[in-house]
Design a protein that fits this description.
Blueprint: H1 10-18, H2 22-36, E1 38-39, E2 50-51, H3 52-55, E3 60-63, H4 74-83, E4 110-114, H5 121-133, E5 143-148, H6 149-152, E6 159-160, H7 162-169, H8 178-182, E7 186-191, E8 215-216, H9 217-226, E9 234-239, E10 254-260, H10 263-273, H11 277-288, H12 291-296, H13 300-315, H14 326-345, H15 353-377, E11 382-383, H16 384-389, H17 394-399, E12 404-407, E13 419-422, H18 425-441, H19 445-453, H20 469-472
Parallel strand pairs: 4-9, 4-10, 5-7, 7-9
Antiparallel strand pairs: 1-2, 3-10, 6-8, 11-13, 12-13
Helix pairs in contact: 2-5, 10-11, 13-14, 15-18
């Protein structure tokens, strides 16, 4: 890690008021509060938002990263992390991500935060941003600007200046000029490097030091990280571990890792989510009976999936044992989402149960094909044309929004393209495994042979269709 540049002075940040910028920044804070106040757990259905402060549970974040972070499948990383002793780890609170520890004498300008898929990196960014916008934390920052790589992908081939880029993604900043930006102490947050389709070149990209100079998005980003462009700005990048090495270590001042929920935080999550104490106690007790579920509940979105399934099973007249393996849990999750879809979309239609089952089966197999083909390409984000290639139309994906999240971009012309992703990477892997199993049972030898000849790494292609008993023994 390198030590670069002095920290912004109080006089620089206080000059914001004298520049006529405060009114604009106040409007920007209101906009961010609107964006960040509500979250959607797993789905993006209209009206399904939940107050972030009502469900937010502090995540376990540490300085540094695990040694095995790039060498194991992410489920295995969770398993390894769950067995670790935390005696020598340095925990960091989310709102102190840019604060040096008592024994550290350095200015922290660029932070890279690692974490497996959906472990809580984006929730942390959202909570940090909301707390700043509400005046609760990090008030030494005059401006916080969150940017998503899934959005930046949509303009990766276009030319923008940094100033115009901020205007386009955050219209409330339209009145911010280059001169006004120069007196700010801004934090630019780039969330989801693993979703990036930009080509980051830290060696051959042109040098850009003027916020009004047009260039490609990847050139602007590399110059921001290197400190050539807006050198007083703080930079926060989040990523899944496998993609984090796109940024040379010499440009990073601090590496942190989001580990997800500790056991106590898991319990707090379920108690905050349900007002029914008996229901939350039964869910917590059941999770403790299965090592697989206990490990996966490190991930907030898996807690949501678990809650969705177990609440349905515990509050309806369901017989049989509650799911203890990942395969059982995801199978029940598909059934629950299918049943909800029938209730919401099929009321009043004279359709036989057999026809409904066949329609459900067809859509799930299409989703499975989408999951499989995008995993082969290394994609966890995809677009309408990817769905259409698998025979899926947008309405079908929207119907199954509990499985395939739809993210609509509405704030600007560049946001009119819809981006899709599965609720969690392991759901994508599960559906891909279902599709492969279907191909096997239906003797689709051409696809199977093609898959085998590609000689995937056994560790990284380990799918969730295998027996989970090795976790539960």
């Amino acid at each position: 890690m390198t030590k670069r540049g002095p920290a912004p002075t109080e006089s620089q940040t206080s000059s914001v008021q004298n520049s006529g910028l405060q009114e604009v920044l106040d409007e920007h804070k209101i906009s961010l509060k609107t964006r960040c106040k509500h979250v959607t757990e797993g789905t993006d259905e209209t009206g399904s938002g939940t107050l972030l402060d009502r469900i937010y549970t502090e995540l376990y974040i540490t300085e540094g990263q695990s040694e095995e972070v790039n060498t194991q499948h992410e489920v295995r990383q969770l398993e390894t992390a769950s067995k670790k002793k935390i005696l020598h780890e340095t925990p960091i609170k989310c709102h102190k991500i840019f604060k040096a520890l008592p024994d550290q004498q350095r200015h922290i300008r660029v932070v890279l935060t690692n974490g497996v898929a959906d472990v809580g990196k984006t929730f942390s960014v959202q909570k940090f941003t909301l707390d700043w916008a509400e005046g609760l934390e990090n008030q030494d920052l005059s401006l916080v600007v969150p940017l998503l790589f899934r959005e930046l992908n949509l303009i990766k081939d276009e030319q923008y200046s940094l100033l115009t880029l901020l205007h386009v993604f955050h219209p409330t900043l339209q009145k911010v000029t280059a001169e006004k930006l120069a007196v700010c102490k801004p934090l630019l947050i780039f969330d989801g490097l693993d979703e990036s389709r930009l080509s980051l070149d830290f060696h051959n990209n042109e040098v850009v030091s003027d916020v009004t100079q047009k260039s490609s998005v990847n050139v602007l980003l590399t110059n921001l990280i290197k400190g050539n462009l807006l050198p007083l700005a703080l930079i926060w990048i989040t990523s899944r571990p496998a993609a984090a090495n796109q940024i040379p270590p010499k440009y990073i001042d601090r590496v942190t890792e989001v580990r997800g929920f500790t056991d106590a935080q898991k319990e707090e999550y379920f108690r905050r989510r349900f007002s029914d104490e008996d229901l939350s106690n039964r869910i917590i007790s059941h999770i403790k009976t299965s090592m697989s579920l206990r490990i996966m509940c490190l991930i907030p979105v898996f807690c949501w999936i678990t809650a969705t399934v177990l609440v349905h099973l515990l509050t309806t007249d369901q017989r049989g044992e509650l799911p203890k393996t990942l395969t059982d849990m995801y199978s029940h999750f598909l059934l629950v989402q299918t049943k909800r879809k029938k209730q919401k979309y099929d009321e009043g239609h004279e359709t036989s149960p057999q026809e409904l089952m066949e329609a459900d089966r067809e859509v799930i197999l299409k989703l499975g094909r989408l999951a499989f083909e995008q995993l082969e390409k290394g994609n966890i984000m995809f677009y309408q044309e990817d769905l259409e290639q698998c025979g899926l139309d947008v309405t079908e994906a929207s119907v199954y929004s509990g499985v395939c999240t739809v993210i609509f971009k509405r704030e600007s012309v560049i946001f009119q393209k819809t981006v899709y992703c599965f609720v969690h990477l392991s759901i994508q892997e599960f559906l891909a495994a279902v599709y492969m199993f279907h191909c096997y049972t239906n003797r689709n030898t051409e696809l199977l042979e093609d898959f085998l000849w590609k000689n995937w790494d056994n560790e990284n292609s380990d799918c969730l269709m295998k027996d989970d008993n090795d976790h539960d023994s």
